[in-house]
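Recap quiz, item 2
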Amino acid sequence: MSGVDCVQALEHLADYLKRELTPELMVEVRQHFERCHECFEHAQFEQNFLMMLERRAARETCPEKLRSKILGMLRGEAEGA
Amino acid sequence: MAEAAAPGRTFDDEALPHLDALYRVALRLTGDASQAEDLVQDTMLKAYRSWRQYRPGTNAKGWLLTILRNTFINDYRRRKHEPVAMDLEAVEPYALDRDIHEVDPEGSFFAQIVDAKVLEAIDQLPVEFREVLVWSDVEGMSYAEVAETLKIPVGTVKSRLFRARRQLQAQLYAHAVEMGYIQPRESPT
């Protein structure tokens, strides 16, 4: 008997989604999700949440005005040095 | 520009690609656009002046975020009205869990929530949770990188991250119900 059970799979879920498990465990956890629908849903839930965070919260960019202000400041520093 | 600490790599090469991330993190820490701009500018100046201390080949984004956070703690945090310090271990991960999973097991509702609402919900987290979540889940840093820049053990990173996510999920779920994106199970009256 190999692989992980439901309790272990859910314990590893967060690390699995961050790809911070050993390669062997990554495979075992993935295989568990492939054969267990309930755990798969949990994984899907967390993954949808994380994808949403990445998409929605990492969209803001540094305003152009600030960028050029910083560039100007760095030039000034370089000349003054 | 500054003498390169890494052969061939200037400060501009290493630092400028991270301006967007620095600005986003500054916004989440200060909660205010004009303070965020000041914070990014101060950070870039300090980073430039200590460029020689940067170890080539290490994580430039992590290095810059460390400077940004130290600057925030030393010069900005006291300017801002901070919520009363709380015992973080006493913050319970929300118990809405089962409810959400029954109504929308795969969390499809997350896709319907608009950017502003997500950011607002992040900003409402206690700062210790907020920074772990932003570092890890918004800016994509590894546990080790988060632990190093925030100077807390990896175990603490994980437990704060867990609580931060639960709290955020519960808040977004409540919002989704309010907006009618999802129908809750019949509510007790």
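The longest helix of chain A spans residues 37-57.
Helices of chain A lie at 6-17, 23-35, 37-57, 64-80.
End of item.
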